[in-house]
Amino acid sequence: MRHLETVQFAVPIWKGTRPYQQIPFQFSVHRLSRTGKIKHQPFLDLTGSDPSRAFAEALIAACGERGPIFVYNAAFETARIRELSDRFPRLASALLTLNERVVDLLPVARDHYYHPSQQGSWSIKAVLPALCPDLHYGDLDGVQDGGMAMQAYLEAIAPQTSLARKREIERQLLAYCALDTYAMVRLWAAFSGTNLKV
Questions:
Q1: How far apart are CA 61 and CA 115, in angstroms?
Q2: b or e along 44-77 (b: 16 or more beta carbons within 10 Å of the residue's beta carbon)?
Q3: Maximum pairwise Cα distance, the chain
Q4: Could you tell me the residue ranges of all domains in the chain?
Q5: Are 71 and 4 in contact (CB under 8 A)?
Q6: Both ends of the chain: CA-CA distance in Å?
């Protein structure tokens, strides 16, 4: 299961980027073994430098070489990977191979599940508490959605942000992104009838 977070700038601050380009700075990957064990691997770059190359290299390593990569909203995720492949030709083959393995859980949820508490929304933030009532984004401290993640990232890389505040933001961002991919693990398990070894 994979999820990524991005930031965009009206005026680019990094060489090789364009206005309003969605630049990934964070990902979370939950890998599920054949025995049902879960392994989590996060990536987050708060240095203030362009995180793109380090992100791409870490993502290739985290996703391994085989097996499906479950995401929620494949169009967004695969577009970001294609953009990275354009920017870093030496990584293009490995990045585009990741896209070939993507399986989108959004249409699976839309076609096979609905609860009135979703109120017509197919956002993972609406589907998750309906299907898995023990998990709520509202229980997270600080960052609870993508917009908040972007704002937190911008605060973290600002020169005037204290080290203590930066560490607090780092903890919040890691927890938020980890819940996104753990949510997908739980949705997949519910849809497939799989027992998880947490």
A1: 37
A2: bbbeeebbbbebbbbbbebbeeeeebbbbebeeb
A3: 49
A4: 2-192
A5: no
A6: 15
Write out pLDDT tens, residues 40-79: 999 999 999 999 999 999 999 999 999 999 999 999 999 9
Residue type, 15: K
Q: Residue 196 forms beta bridges with which residues?
A: none
A 10 A CB-CB count for 130 gives 16
**Spatial distance between the Cα atoms of 63 and 13, rounded to a whole number of angstroms:** 29
Q: What is the pLDDT of residues 134-146, one digit of tens each?
A: 888 888 999 999 9
Q: Do residues 101 and 68 make contact, with C-beta atoms less than 8 angstroms apart?
A: yes
User: Which helix (H) or strand (E) is 183 found in, with range?
Assistant: helix 163-192
Please identify which residue in the block is written with the tokens 């704002």. 151
| Residue 31: CA count within 13 A, CB half-sphere | 14
Q: Which two tokens stand for residue 137?
A: 């984004």
Residue that is written with structure tokens 């499906």 in the block? 68
Amino acid code (one letter) for 156: A
Assign residue 12 a region (left: φ > 0; alpha: ψ between -120 and 50; beta: otherwise): beta
Q: Residue with structure tokens 């299961």?
A: 1
Q: What's phi and psi for 92, nearest 5 deg? A: -60, -45
Q: Beta-carbon neighbour count of residue 26 at 10 Å?
A: 23
Whether the CB-CB separation of 17 and 177 falls below 8 Å is answered with no
Looking at residue 136, its pLDDT comes to: 85
